[in-house]
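<derive_structure_tokens>
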Amino acid sequence: MKIKEFIQNELLLPRLKSTLALVVYDPDRRYRELCLEMATDKRIVIDAGESSIESREAALATLHKLGEQHSPLEWMLVYVPAKRPERIEQRQIDPFALYEACGAAFPKIGDDGDEYMSICLRAKPDYTTEIRRLFNDNPSPSFAMVDAIGAGLSWPQLQATLKVESAPDILMALLAPGEDQLKALKDQDGWAQEARDLLRATLGLELRTKGKTWDPISKELWQFLLFSEFVFDLPVELPAALSSAPRAQTAARLLVNDLCDRLRNDLRTRAKYIEEAERVASQLNLADECSGIDDLGERDTFNFEERTFLRQAINGLKEDDWDLTRQMLARHKKSVWVSKGESQAQWDLIRAALALIEACDAGENQLLEHLRSQEALLDFYISHLREVDSLQREFEQEVGDLHDPHGLMSEVVGQARAAYRRLAQKVQTAFVKHLETSGWPPAGRLANADVYDRFVGERLKDRGRKIAYLMVDALRYELGVALEKLLAEDGAVELHAAYAQLPTITRVGMASLAPGAKSDLTLDWVNDKLVPKLGDAPVADVPQRMEAFRRKLGDRFTEMTLGDFVRGKVKLPATTELLVLRSTEIDSQLESNPESTLGLIPGTLKMIRAALHKLRELKFNEAVIATDHGFFLNASAEAGDVCAKPQGKWIANAHDRLLLGEGDADSHSAVIAAERLGIRGVFSRCAVPRSFAPYRAGYLYFHGGASLAEAVVPVLVMRLEGVATENKTFKVEMSYKRDPKKITTRLPVIHVKVATDLFTPELEILLEAQDAKRNVVGEPRPGGEVNAATGTVTLKANQENPAQVVLRMHEGFRGKFTVKALNPKTLFEYGSLSLETDYLE
């Protein structure tokens, strides 16, 4: 391709097509003729060198015409035979700066690639040395002189061996050959001298190795190429210890950058790039030698350079420059190092922190207009603030998964937690004030004690109708929203906000979901324990609560755990019309270790979805999903963060979040008549903290008290009539690029692609790592295509580039395992990948 054609087709046309207008500034009048040649019926070229006034009028008229709805014109190019103004004052008086603002300009300010010599080097990368020599002799050679370079120079043996023509393609093949190319390089002799000449001519590399085979030549080329890109991009002086390492001359910069970009961006060479970059960084000890450098440049040649971009993203959060953080996050998405699981975990934490901080900021800004009444505050929580709870849970899940070897993330964690704490405390203060004046549950709204009668009992009046009642412990409202979105893909589902029975503890909340709770539920104090009763019958534990159902329904009632129903072969009595499925997984996991078990919550939602599919197969008509209480994650608790108990005689203490007995209010606690809070029984008064501080320090996860997160809960009703059809024509392909057989990290990145018919644009899958006994030993980390609430992965079908899903392997597991892509409802297997652990420690 001649240099004129290269400038037209590779530089000007792409910029012109990406916008409406392009201004070409050319003080040397080098590009005038090639610009004028670009005019077509749909492309107007205006020559500002002919007449300044006429060209301005023509440019303005063309711009107006471009803005018309059905304009026949597509683009305009304005040729200006003058230097591009750089300072703001100069641009203000330039009559053609308007068109650059509407589109683009050539050359770009600060872009070395738009300089004439750089353009020639890009157009003729095979002849770098000759072009440099030409420009040394003549700073402004003509197009004809540039086109004359290269006559007779070729690499016949390499071209024949590798079956490629251009020098850049030969270099790519020497770096990362395909199977046929590698075989040819090993089988044939004589190409090594040509390779030495080629490397000298294009990159200025004088090979040190005496080897004549591919491996030593390729390894030296990799080190030279990657180190050259790193040095070109480094904005500060190179450390003295690295100054003697071979690197390319400045004239080869464009070729070096282009080759590195190709190697990183091509899926066929990306794994090789990562492998070689890690080898070169290790051999040159780059991470240690550059440990004192804060700014490592713009390009991410090596993995350790990410700390530069991490710091910029973190600084954006610290300085409230969220655009900078977003810019760094967007940049990282395109990075080759996104396939490193440990790296992705740090970026996912920043992404989660930014989302939480922004949501808290928006919540604070809107809060004042929603504080006038309890009803307004509840509506604001249901519509907006519950999303903040969701983002906080996802953020804390990222914190629990975090591996932070350089200690960069502590400020991020502290800032996000402080933002959530500030908003949560403002909301809680307002909520308790409304609780004192309006009581609980809110008048005219669905109380949890109404759920059985309204959604279950009414439906059971029709004999023969089969209802499933899923009683899920600690399914707070934001999880109900996530579950609704998930179930909406499977059929008609309704989500209702309900208001939990106080105190928000399991024994009381589950009792409120039983038959007769609306009229008969009371709280008693028996043998120093809080005992809920329906009439005279205690319903404090599972057998007692299930007996309340049995007394009401007899042989129409059957019950079991959610896990047993999903995993086992179920044969229900023919008389069953109400099936109660019990789940305590969320509450028990968070009670035991909230810092590390937040990631297990999606497992319960997946079980619920699988149970609903099974219920449909068993011809159930509807399913009602309800819960006893929500919860609050107190991750931002500070030392001494505890509420002093008010004066009085407090008999019962519900999880240190609510007191029952006698006493008076103070500045720390609100004291309200128990009956006014919907609590019937032997207690006359109730005390709740005005803040999120419990009456005893040390809680990271709590419930029992009165807060929006603890007391606003979901009720979901799912219609199950009809049999859902499943399209099993999907084909899911998985691979592990580093080694097709073994993983060396607990955060391996699995590449996943899905192929399906043209009528199914995307597929939701459940990705699990299972051992030989089908025990789950690894699950996807949230982020990207992975839903944080459900753990499922949504993939676009027939995409060329696979999704990169980070698996989080369980800490204690080692050995062989299989990664399975499953239908989240039926557990039908779409594809699998066999791997084995080979951890370095």
